[in-house]
Amino acid sequence: PGSTEENWVYVEFKPYEINPRRPHSSRETLKRARCLANLLKHAKAPEAGFHTLCLRCLVQQTRPSPRLAFIFDLPPGLDHEPITLLEAIENQDGSYIRPTLGERFNIARRLAETLFQLHSVGWLHKSIRSENVLLFRDRKSRNIIYPRPYLVGFEFSRDVTDASTVERDGLLARNIYRHPDRQGPPEDAVGNRFSVLHDIYALGVVLLEVGLWKPVMGYEEWANCGGADERMRLLEEHTAERLPHYMGMGYTDAVSACLKGEISDEVWGAPSNDVERESVLLAFWEKVVNGTEAERIHLSSKDF
Which of 182, 204, 255, 290 could hold 178 in an S-S bridge, CB 3.0 to 4.6 Å? Predict the structure, then answer.
């Protein structure tokens, strides 16, 4: 950081291995990173519904250990110290003003739009959770600008046709956002290739947090709730029983579709080809992207 706005940047690091016996592996990692960088560097992406920071450059570092640095520009005119969506929802010290109902719908809509745009160009995010969503404050009022969330955390992102990479770490606070198929030790990944439905599931958990404005880790004593399948069942239960009161049935149905994987009526399970992926994508727009906004027409303008 420096003394001027232009010197402040946001950096994400992606470690990788250099194995002399498998040079092809590191070359593929670098190739994938460059492709991702090309996607993230378009300054007008937010205008098309891809709400993420604009990439300034990609830097390859070899010391002290091999890693890639994705260096992003910060939004102009805003405070240069972002907070995460998780921090805003937790709001442990009461320092943040809670968003209005309309602002919560806007957050949800923009996150859903971003995932749609990412999937529409054939990429998977693989790390969607509320700590990977950034919010910025107005420089003068210091109020959080909730309607402008930015999705980050692309360290595991890959093209939908690439071989699946392992993003598991065993942490419950992260596993709670992952579909049961993507939890457990890496050897359990056989037959559970990451798909668009796994990204959509993670988005559903974040949308549930946004709707209730409460961190998902506070819903239950998750460590005592059994396995991943039981946690998924309880999230679906919280959605059905609590969310309608706060956000209405349109929003509830959108979140439920994410968690249950009930996106396209024409595709059962993970899409396996371009035709099925397109069917899921179009259904996602209709059920989830539009679903995060449908109830707004019934609300008084004073809520916004």
Answer: 182
Structure tokens at 114: 């971003």
Distance CA 147, CA 301 (A): 16
Q: Are 194 and 124 in contact (CB under 8 A)?
A: yes
- pTM of the full structure: 0.89
Tokens of 255: 């979140």
Helix, strand or coil, per DSSP, at residue 215: coil
Dist. CA 134–CA 83, nearest whole Å: 6
For all residues of the chain together, what is the average pLDDT? 85
Q: How far apart are CA 208 and CA 9, in angstroms?
A: 30
Q: Would you say 271 and 196 are in contact if contact means Cβ atoms under 8 Å apart?
A: yes
Indicate the helix (H) or strand (E) that contains 175.
helix 172-175
pLDDT digits (tens, 9 = 90+) for 65-83: 889 999 999 988 888 889 9
The partner residues of 13 in beta bridges, in order of sequence, read 69
Under 8 Å between Cβ of 206 and 177: yes
State the Cα–Cα distance between residues 292 and 286, nearest whole angstrom: 10
Cβ atoms of residues 12 and 155 within 8 Å: yes
Report the phi/psi class of residue 244: left, alpha or beta, with left for phi > 0 and alpha for psi in -120 to 50: alpha
Checking DSSP bridges between strand 55-61 and strand 83-84, what pairing results, if any? unpaired
Q: How far apart are CA 19 and CA 24, in angstroms?
A: 9
Identify the weakest region by mean pLDDT among 197-201, 242-246, 294-298. Answer: 294-298
